[in-house]
Amino acid sequence: MKPERSKIKSDILLRVRLLYVLFILAGGVVLVRLVWVQLFSAEVAYNADRLSSRIFTEEVIPAQRGSILSRDGEPLATSIFRYQAAFDFASPGLDSLRTFREQADSLSKLLAAFFGDRPASEYARMFREEHARRYRLVNPRDTQYLRSEGWLSRMLDRLRGEEYVTRRIYDTIRDHTPVAVFPREVDYAEWEVLRRYPLLNWNMGMVYRLVERDERIYPQGELARRTIGLTGDKGNYGIEEAYRAELAGRDGRAVRQRIARGFYGRVAGAGHEDPEDGYDVVTTLDLDLQDVADKALRRQLERQNALWGTTIVMETRTGEILALANLGRNADGSFAERENYALSRSMEPGSTFKLATMLTLLDDARMPVTTVYDTHNGDPVKIGPARNIRDSHRGDREIDFRRAVASSSNVYFAEAVWDRYGITGRKQRYSDYLRDELHLGETVGLERLGERAPSITSDWKVPDPGVMLVKMAYGYRVRLTPIQMITFYNAVANEGRMISPVLVRELRRGDRVEERFESRTISSSVCSRQTLRIVRECLQAVCTEGTASAFFRDTTRVRVAAKTGTAQITDARSREGRYYLGSMVAFFPADAPRYTVLTTIETRAQAGKAYYGGPLAGPVVKRMVDYIYNRGHDWYGRVGGDGPRRYPERVKGGDIAQIRRVADRLSPRASFDSRTGWGRAAVDSLSNVAITSLPDDRGVMPDVRGMGLKDALFVLESRGLRVRFSGQGAVVRQSIAAGTRIRPGAAVVITLD
């Protein structure tokens, strides 16, 4: 028996040893596999990355885009956040049906009252249906889900939200897809109210997540929109595009851990970087002036049925652009900021270019201002090889330099330039002077905003160099943008110093200025002091007796220096009719300029519509000059308190209370028969003022002689009369004698002097 037991024991030991060996081999294999996986295989890292990417995600925290501001800090373009609450109706925080129903009913009533788009019952029904759809119950004994929402709602009502019953009898299937609950996105102020409502004032169990969206808005509407610009699918232009990087800032980043589908929580640390908001771009635009320029230009474009126009207002000393309006015609006939015409339209300017010819003739050719040429009464003449050169007006024959500027004579300047630069070798001198000394062949520093380069010829190897020279003398065969033209005129206003215009004043973050922009000097002097004085006097003559006299003849308020220009556009459209470019550039006060204004309008020749520069662009420039003057009280004249006392020789009639106030300050004595109403004023030899009231009978013609235009118009129109007037100053004649019975609607003509 012993040998048998020994054999069994040996058999058992063998088996045990074999098992040991197998276990050791298996352990070795596992160990080798572990070493391989840990040290040599890329599979673990790959799977770990995949798992990590499913659980953790790096989120970009967008920086808030900077605002574009006016010079006074008013927003022209800014970004605001929009908010939307996206509910997770399958979140554990909503497992208790009783609590959900109570909270949802209260929230429904509040949302209905806040948005007013639908009744509270519809909000409540939406909440119940979404909850039933996202939070589904499954009976383990059945093979199909209980999909009937009506049945499911009734069953959930029966369960009364008792979680232990639900878990004991049913399994839950949760759909964590976020559902937007507001009918629209809300702004920050609205969200501050909504966040206090039930279900929105707590976030237990990730009931909802807040979706934020950065939206760009333009508080001033279409005002200066082409200058402000845009970025995105609809185009990239203006300040928005030029300063895209500065406005955008730097995005931040954060690591978030997935909690449920569509819901993440931020992981503390993990390389979090806060975003850096973009800079605010502070422009030089004055909102009041921009608004006035836009309205004045729009009114004139509509009145003249024009194609497009631009108005620029520049501060003379600093070069800052205070207003920049660009309006073009839409297909429906309305006008909008379609294109930045001031910077992008390089066109033949016409007679406004004569300022360059004036400086060239006086400084380079040394032509005396007493030089006289025969302008042939506006008849076509031949000058050099150029034929049919004529003036647009008649009445002038032999005129001097000053008269030629005032009347904008093409013939005079064409003859003067041909005589001095028409000989061999001098044509190049003329164009070189325009380019090198007057700097008209270069941009003025707004290339970043889309400024187009000017065109001043430097190649005279053309079929008709003589014709080109003559045409250049009065603004053809050269191309300039409006911004380049106003920069040139501003140099004459700025004591000869040409500076670059400035549209962006500074970059700011909060109250801290990060970078400031100032104008650069293009030329310290474009002409001599003597030439500057002569040219300024000539430009003033344009306003007092020349092509701009209809707008600025009255120099009692402010003296203006200006130049008008008209150019017939010769391009493919000329086959469809005649197109014209009318311009006016002015600076004021003429003796110590502070502002320079330009208006350029393109139109088509139409019956009864203007196309010359004066009547086409003049009303807009006049409106800007008047508005700036009336706004700037610091430059009004004052009566000095020193020296001998002086009294007025004449006092205008009008409102009696105002006449009395003036007479009490400026005259020894004032007498009157009424303290209020309308009256006439007479000054005797002792400078005493006697005020006589007008009759109250509205059916009798009043005596408005001696009144100013504003008061006379009010008095006459208040009595139902239609008034026409001529002249400036005070009324000296009226077509209906005082005391005559009048009928409403009758016409009366008054003459002022």
From TrEMBL:
<dbReference type="Pfam" id="PF00905">
    <property type="entry name" value="Transpeptidase"/>
</dbReference>
<dbReference type="InterPro" id="IPR050515">
    <property type="entry name" value="Beta-lactam/transpept"/>
</dbReference>
<dbReference type="InterPro" id="IPR012338">
    <property type="entry name" value="Beta-lactam/transpept-like"/>
</dbReference>
<dbReference type="InterPro" id="IPR001460">
    <property type="entry name" value="PCN-bd_Tpept"/>
</dbReference>
<dbReference type="InterPro" id="IPR005543">
    <property type="entry name" value="PASTA_dom"/>
</dbReference>
<keyword id="KW-0472">Membrane</keyword>
<keyword id="KW-0812">Transmembrane</keyword>
<dbReference type="GO" id="GO:0005886">
    <property type="term" value="C:plasma membrane"/>
</dbReference>
<feature type="transmembrane region" description="Helical">
    <location>
        <begin position="12"/>
        <end position="36"/>
    </location>
</feature>
<protein>
    <submittedName>
        <fullName>Penicillin-binding protein</fullName>
    </submittedName>
</protein>
<dbReference type="Pfam" id="PF03793">
    <property type="entry name" value="PASTA"/>
</dbReference>
<dbReference type="GO" id="GO:0008658">
    <property type="term" value="F:penicillin binding"/>
</dbReference>
<keyword id="KW-1133">Transmembrane helix</keyword>
<feature type="domain" description="PASTA">
    <location>
        <begin position="699"/>
        <end position="753"/>
    </location>
</feature>
<dbReference type="InterPro" id="IPR036138">
    <property type="entry name" value="PBP_dimer_sf"/>
</dbReference>
<dbReference type="GO" id="GO:0071555">
    <property type="term" value="P:cell wall organization"/>
</dbReference>
